[in-house]
Specification:
This protein is of the alpha+beta class. It has a domain of 49 residues. The chain is 19% helix and 25% strand. The chain is built from two helices and five strands. Strands 4-1-5 form a three-stranded antiparallel beta sheet. It has a two-stranded antiparallel ribbon with strand order 2-3. The chain is globular and about 30 Å long. The termini are far apart.
């Protein structure tokens, strides 16, 4: 049995990241992947560990936009 891991996609510049097909996912989506693929996307900065128990996509975007704060 292959160990799996849930991550939240934080960036997407291509439908294929480091050999992992994310063509059907959007930034903010929680993805259930084989542990190796998930750890690769985490290490490369494309995703963060999913910390909630939902498989719903988040609102996406950067924190500054969500909080109404401007970057300087």
């Amino acid at each position: 049995m292959v160990s799996r891991m849930r991550i939240r996609l934080t960036r997407k510049l291509s439908p294929l990241l480091n050999g992992v097909d994310i063509s059907r996912q959007n930034v903010g989506d929680v993805i259930d992947l084989p542990r190796h693929d998930a750890e690769l996307l985490l290490a490369e900065g494309w995703a963060l560990p999913a910390t909630d128990n939902k498989f719903e996509p988040s609102k996406g975007g950067d924190a500054a936009r969500r909080t109404g704060k401007r970057r300087q």
